[in-house]
Amino acid sequence: MEFTINRDMLKSVTAVDHTGSLIYQEKEAFSGIHKIARKVMGDVELVFGYAPQATSDRKKLGKHAVLYGTLNHSPMLHELEEKQLIDLSEVKGKREVYLFQVIENPFEDVEKALVIAGSDKRGTIYGLFHLSELLGVSPLVDWCDVKPKHKESFSLSGDLKYLSKEPYVRYRGFFINDEWPAFGNWTTKNFGGFNAEMYDHVFELLLRLKGNYLWPAMWSARFSEDGPGLLNAVLADEYGVVMGASHHEPCLRNGEEYKYLRGKDSIYGDAWNFIANREGITKFWKDGLKRNGNFENVITVGMRGEADTTIMGKDATLADNIELLRNVIQTQNQLIRENINPNLSEVPRMLALYKEVEPFFYGDEHTAGLIGSEELEDIILMLCDDNHGNLRTLPTEEMRSHSGGYGMYYHFDYHGGPISYEWINSSYLPKIWEQMTMAYDFGVRDLWIVNVGDIATQEFPLSYFLDLAYDFEKWGTSAKNKTDDYTRKWIDTQFDGVFNEVKKEKVFELLTGYTKMAHNRRPEHMNAEVYHPVHYRETDQTLQQIDYLLKAAEELYKQVDSEKLPKFFSLVYYPAVGNLNLQKMWLLTGKNHDDAKLGKMEANKLAEQIRACLTRDRELVEQYHTIDNGKWYGMGMSEHIGFTNWNEEGCQNPILMQVFPANKPRLIVSIDGTNQHSEGPAWHNNTLYLDAFLQPHIEEATFTISSLSEKNAEFMITCENQWLTCSKTSGSLDGRDKTSEVIQVSINRKEMGDDSEGRIVVEMPCGTCTILVYAAQNDYKEFPERTFIDTNGYISIEAEHYFLNKEAVNQQGDMYRFEVLEGYGKTLSAMKAFPTTKHFSVGEDAPYLEYHFVVLEAGTHEVELYLQPSNPVTKDNTLFCGIQANEDDINIVNIIPEEYIVGESDNWGVDVLNNIHRYCHRIECKAGLNTLRIYAVSPGYVLEKLVIYPEGKKPAASYLGPTETYYVGK
């Protein structure tokens, strides 16, 4: 017989005497678990329309009941074990594990029971929420009001027994940061401040997502005082939420607290300075430990300057800083012994190696750092990304034996240089997977925390981040190219009953599309100069992608009923459309500037479209603030347009260029994808070149005729080559309603005969323009498939289009190989060598990618590698790969420039904004077929694209790089 919950059984139970109750509430259970059980009861009511009843009287239970408890805190569980109905040894001694089992006849008159037995408090909580998930309830049910699909009945097999895994990462959570103006205004309006009423929702979100660790808001908030009083901390402990504090808030004290306690007559002194005010600072830390030490915490140790600044002045030496930090940690360890536990190994502590603290840990060739020091024993060493999603140093094999383990501080939001990003989600799941799986592989498994800013709109990547940490086996290194699967699963969870399968696929396209666009360039980092307005048509093609996604968003928006619209709006529509609309605005601005410089009347129409985008941006934020009775008011307030500095100071809206019309009818011809243009004057340039058809796979190209005046201007197009066809042979533009005409040119190579050059003549009011069309008939079938052919003066290769992916095997039989990371690159994908922790030796165990290409002339060429902007995993500032052309020697090269300093140097800043690192290397080519091999050497090497060209003849500049050129079989 199955265990069942249905509408009828819930409907029949009254709230008066609770006879027939579904939930058994054991008096010995933790109070926080009872609170979670009530939330699950609310979930049941959402699913079935009737609230289940709970009772502590076994005689009032119904025939089917839910029994929950925690090992060593539940006489009921031990009773069931004595009856041999369950086996608690399966959860005993495990961390955050639950048994989820259907049993028969646990008590008199109870025929079937679902038993949820947690190994500890969080294990029981996760087990209770597992029931909600099986009922179809989203983890975002409270945070985003994601209502589940209604059911009549729900059943579990009578012999069901499920034992959850131990979470793979010990502490998993997020950091509410940069909370003004958005989060601060939101919580002030809805809850009156940063209090326990608000944190109840945050804790629930964290636990439903199977997290367990939180850094609370701290710019202006004081977690342990705003509850009011200690209520925030009490509630966290009740729920089993492990509290931490940011990297510069040691000993259970929030950074803002000192500001309100300091003073000339204060017992804590009046200087955040351990040298000048050692006694006061020590007292400040001691009282923090005494106040919060009985709760479950990971205690931050170490010290930075006030407001997240350096601890000592610029004149201090590295040795001075290291010695000061050593003294600070020694003092903090002693305080923890005296006030919490004399056995430090039993007290979770964390030191963040963030910004300038990282060199204090490693030291340099002249000064020993803190690495390996006894002060750091059993302390989690929290490593960091570069604030833009790229990991910094990772533990060497020798370092991985550190007794405290390692953590990672990752960012979905950042307030700092080179440019902040704090508005809406701009994180891309394939990038999160690539970086965080490498962190795990390197032994970073004790603490993962991600800066989510205001939380709002980050729910999608946050869900993934925490699921990855919780079940690394399912979503981690072995799950290559599974982020699309995760995305579809997430969509099913949030929108079951809202969209059919076809529409869910549209939601999938929208989610992956806008986050890929943001991966290429975050919205706050956009401006008119990022994408090239004409080269390779990268702006036009990006605009086409944006318009497709915006159309999909509007179609979905119109099909959602009013009750379910708010969740779709907040989770998908607002972050997607907001992001895409802003990207579109800046792309149009780039085109506006380029067209205006040529005097095109199209510039004026583009200016109107840009104004519409700016208006739309304001409308979206306003709608976000008012939808669902103002639920998200404040969350859209972060500045996000036109950063000229690292922060919002000096932000500028787009500058629009207006064109005054010429005095007479004038037209101009432009070859699309290039900067060629001509009015066809007799005395100046009147010949343009269209060479797209030199690539055998290209069958259509375009040129555009544009107005330079508001007077009617006619054009005539003639072509005597029968193998070329133009989409129009004549027309006119008026410069107002019709400012441009795109002419499609098609080729029929079967009609070419011996021709290789054609002519298209465009007659205009001010002259005649001749377009010379170069074409090739050769399909180069004499070369193997995936041989790239230089037909346009350069070759562009997407990294996954290799000729050979050569694996390597070491003496132990382990296989090393490059793998495709689908969708990862800015244009297609990327290639990364696995295992990710391996330092390969060329000629011994290094896998390589081999590319074949043909050039017309022998000589020196340059190969430009487009790489994920990975940082070196070690402190020696090297990221090596091997490059070999033909049979020449293999060159082991460091792709990191000498002056490259993570977090500081200008070239690092350019790379993280562009989300690409480019490296150029000279190779010698012979006329005809050549081979190029790229060997893996250092961990973290991720190759996206290669561009090969004669030395000194770099292809036209662009943001995404030249589009891929022809290869045999393309």
Number of strands: 39
Q: How far do the termini sit from each other?
A: 59 Å
Report the major sheet: 8 strands, parallel
Q: Are there runs of 5+ residues with pLDDT below 50, and where? A: none
Strand line-up of the largest beta sheet: 11-10-9-16-15-14-13-12
Determine Rg (CA atoms, Å): 32 Å
Treating each run of at least 4 consecutive H or I residues as one helix, how many helices? Answer: 20
Q: State the helical fraction.
A: 25-40%
Shape: globular
Let me know the average pLDDT.
Answer: 96
Strand content: 15-25%
Structural class label = alpha/beta
Write a compact overview of the structure shown:
With 970 residues, the chain is of the alpha/beta class.
How does this model look, in words?
It is a single chain. This protein has 970 residues and is α/β, with parallel strands linked by helices. The strands form seven sheets. An eight-stranded parallel sheet has the order 11-10-9-16-15-14-13-12.
What descriptive keywords fit this protein?
970 residues, 22% strand, eight-stranded parallel sheet, alpha/beta, globular, seven-stranded antiparallel sheet
Chart the SSEs and their pairings.
Layout: E1 3-6, H1 7-11, E2 21-24, H2 31-48, E3 54-55, E4 61-70, H3 75-82, E5 98-104, E6 112-118, H4 121-134, E7 153-156, E8 161-163, E9 171-176, H5 182-191, H6 196-208, E10 213-215, H7 231-239, E11 242-243, H8 255-261, H9 278-292, E12 299-301, H10 318-339, E13 349-352, H11 357-362, E14 379-384, E15 406-411, H12 429-441, E16 447-453, H13 459-470, H14 472-475, H15 483-495, H16 501-520, H17 538-559, H18 565-597, H19 602-630, E17 667-671, E18 677-678, E19 687-690, E20 700-707, E21 713-718, E22 724-726, E23 730-733, E24 740-747, E25 757-764, E26 767-774, E27 787-789, E28 795-798, E29 804-806, E30 808-809, E31 815-822, E32 829-834, E33 848-855, E34 859-867, E35 880-885, E36 891-894, H20 906-914, E37 917-925, E38 928-936, E39 942-950
Parallel strand pairs: 2-3, 2-4, 4-6, 9-10, 9-16, 10-11, 12-13, 13-14, 14-15, 15-16, 19-26, 27-33
Antiparallel strand pairs: 1-7, 5-6, 5-8, 17-18, 17-20, 20-24, 21-23, 21-25, 22-24, 25-26, 28-39, 29-33, 30-31, 31-32, 32-39, 33-38, 34-37, 34-39, 35-36, 35-38
Helix pairs in contact: 2-4, 2-7, 6-7, 9-10, 12-13, 15-16, 16-17, 16-18, 17-18, 18-19
